[in-house]
Design goal:
7 strands; three-stranded mixed β-sheet; four-stranded mixed β-sheet; elongated; binds zinc ion; alpha/beta; Zincin-like; single chain; 2 domains
Length: 176
């Protein structure tokens, strides 16, 4: 393992010699790997890495920021609750699908869930999404009160109350 310094930050890297023509730097999972052709002298490689220090530092930071999840606060909870109150009231009136309880939680793997006891959980992370996206998630879970699956009947019901749901669903998938 070798080290360069950029603006007082030590950055570790290691060299992997390969049967390649050009020297390049790979950053993956917070690791800096320099892939070098077999014939290249080590001090030439070190010099190259030094010249790229700023770029490496920026890349490492970018990687870290993507992985760090933002902290959710009490304020986010209140904001989402306010939006949900309006959206749920409208949708329940319109669909006549009435849940037992709706709660907000910071959950990991879904935007919303619906239990057999008719309890709906809405993901706190939706606070960062548009009203339309929140509406879609609520509607989706409400429709599960009637169909506990993703059958055609289920999707037809979603579509009935939100004709453009496919588009919104796609948006939610892509910018997660
Ligand atoms: Zn579902």
């Amino acid at each position: 393992m070798k080290v360069i310094n950029y603006n007082g930050h030590n950055i570790e890297y290691h060299i992997e010699y390969k049967r390649i023509k050009n020297l390049y730097i790979q950053i993956k999972d917070h690791e800096v790997i320099v892939k070098a052709p077999k014939f290249l002298r080590e001090n030439y490689i070190d010099e190259f890495v030094n010249k790229k220090a700023k770029w490496i530092y920026t890349k490492l930071n970018e990687e870290r920021q993507v992985q760090e999840e933002r902290e959710y606060t009490e304020e986010d909870y209140i904001n989402l609750e306010k939006k949900l109150n309006i959206i749920c009231k409208d949708l329940i009136t319109e669909t006549k699908l009435v849940p037992n309880k709706i709660r907000i939680r910071n959950i990991k793997y879904a935007w919303g869930t619906c239990s057999a006891n008719k309890n709906i959980t809405i993901n706190l992370k939706l606070v960062d999404k548009t009203d339309e996206e929140i509406k879609y998630v609520v509607l989706h879970e409400l429709c599960h009160l009637k169909y506990m699956n993703h059958s055609n009947r289920f999707w037809n019901l979603v579509e009935k109350y939100m004709p453009n749901y496919k588009e919104i669903r796609k948006k939610l998938k892509h910018n997660r």
